[in-house]
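**User:** Once you have settled down, spend some time on the protein underneath, comparing sequence with structure tokens, and judge whether sequence predicts the tokens.
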Amino acid sequence: MTQTHRLIPFLMGLLVLLPMSPLVNPADLPAGFDYADKHIPRLMTELKYFSSANFVGRPIDGYRANRAILTLPAIEALAEVQKELNAFGLGVKIYDAYRPQRSVDHFIRWSTDETATDTQPSYYPNVPKSELFALEYLARQSSHSRGSTVDLTLVDLGTGKELDMGSAFDLFDPVSWPAAAALASEQRAHRLLLSVVMRQHGFKPYPKEWWHFTLANEPFPATYFDFPVE
């Protein structure tokens, strides 16, 4: 018997004696919530508010990880969307999902800072930031905080590239409205495809953002959560 073989029973004995560490969730999620990527194969996630690539220009309060959290019914419905799109070589990329109320409060503070306009050319070139709430591009209580709203786009699974939707995420402008007239036929077709598939699986669109969908039968229609994304 080699020395390695002699060590095996000894090592196995140590494993029995050592205390087992329980598996712990990286975040203590409320009942009814989970991470979307645990249930949706080939899901791409790029949470814009976890990075500086957003209209505020810095990471947003409450975003501590690049993981999309949603209610279980929203995840189940989105999994069906992904399954249907995968059959055509497409998938979804999530820009935002559950959003803590503290993140919305960060948006509110930013909106009152008249000196913070560095991102205006890219995100709100034709709208004063003081009017973003009145024009309903932003809300003081967001449907995202209820856990069943998702911002997303279409991607080509073969290349991983986003499809051309005619405007960037969080461009607060009429060109981002789903029915915007100033679109190429391909861009209009991509928006229509996303909208049709999402609506077929129980989501309702938002008339000012092509990327924004809320589960019609959401489980927490009047509850705004504030646990962090981590």
Helices lie at 3-17, 72-86, 101-111, 120-123, 185-200. The first helix runs from residue 3 to 17. Residues 27-215 form a domain with the Muramoyl-pentapeptide Carboxypeptidase; domain 2 fold (CATH 3.30.1380.10). The chain has five helices and seven strands.
